[in-house]
Specification:
This protein has helices at about 50-65, 115-135, 155-165; strands spanning about 25-30, 40-45, 45-50, 70-75, 80-90, 95-100, 100-105, 145-150. The protein has about 180 residues and is of the alpha+beta class. The protein has one domain (about 20-90, about 110-170): 2-Layer Sandwich (Alpha-Beta Plaits). Strands 4-5-1-8 form a 4-stranded antiparallel sheet, with helices on both faces. Strands 2-3 form a two-stranded antiparallel sheet. A hairpin with a 2-residue loop joins strand 6 and strand 7 (about 100-105). Helix 1 (about 50-65) packs antiparallel against helix 2 (about 115-135). The longest helix is centred in the C-terminal third of the chain and has 20 residues, at about 115-135. The relative contact order is 0.22.
């Protein structure tokens, strides 16, 4: 039997006691499995997407069709990772006729999906289609993802600029390898 202390433990990546279903903006990075250059190439300081990269982009754009309480912001598909900003909006009330007007339904228990669930959905939807395209099975994306809670307008501006300028800085990007 393996020594439990010998098993490498993963460092928690999420902020303890933070509700990742809270309304707000979240920056994220998701890498391809083994950082394979599967999604595109950098050509003339821009990204030329492969069919797999097109699937990743289309999956991102399609997320609001599955989750109505989200708003998409900046997003980019790079050769071996994606960056994006995703907004979780306030949970709307379901209205029902009560007396002479509409009031929030007391039976509305719909829970806002959290960031982890939304990233999982993106990874699952896109991986299924990419594997179908490639006639393969297995992991397309690395386990986990990087996230950052956007704290204010300046933080949002900086992360938008980072995403927009990512192709220009490809050769010095930590995911370049």
């Amino acid at each position: 039997m393996a020594n439990p202390k010998a098993i490498a433990r993963r460092k928690p990546q999420r902020l303890a006691h933070y509700d990742y279903a809270s309304a707000g903006a979240y920056f994220f990075t998701i890498c391809t499995n083994d950082r394979q250059h599967l999604l595109g190439s950098i050509i003339a300081e821009g990204v030329q997407l492969t069919p797999a990269g097109e699937i990743a982009k289309r999956t991102w754009l399609d997320l609001p069709q599955h989750y109505s309480l989200i708003k998409l912001d900046e997003f980019i598909v790079m050769p071996n990772h994606v960056h994006g900003i995703l907004w979780l909006t306030e949970k709307p009330y379901q209205l029902q006729a009560v007396g002479e007007g509409l009031r929030p339904s007391p039976t509305n228990t719909q829970r806002q999906p959290g960031l982890t669930e939304l990233i999982r959905a993106f990874k699952s939807f896109s991986a299924r289609e990419i594997n179908k395209l490639r006639k393969t099975t297995g992991s397309v994306w690395q386990r986990g993802f990087y996230e950052h809670i956007v704290r204010n307008d300046n933080d949002l501006y900086q992360h938008r600029a980072y995403i927009q300028n990512n192709p220009l800085k490809w050769t010095i990007d930590e995911y370049y390898a």
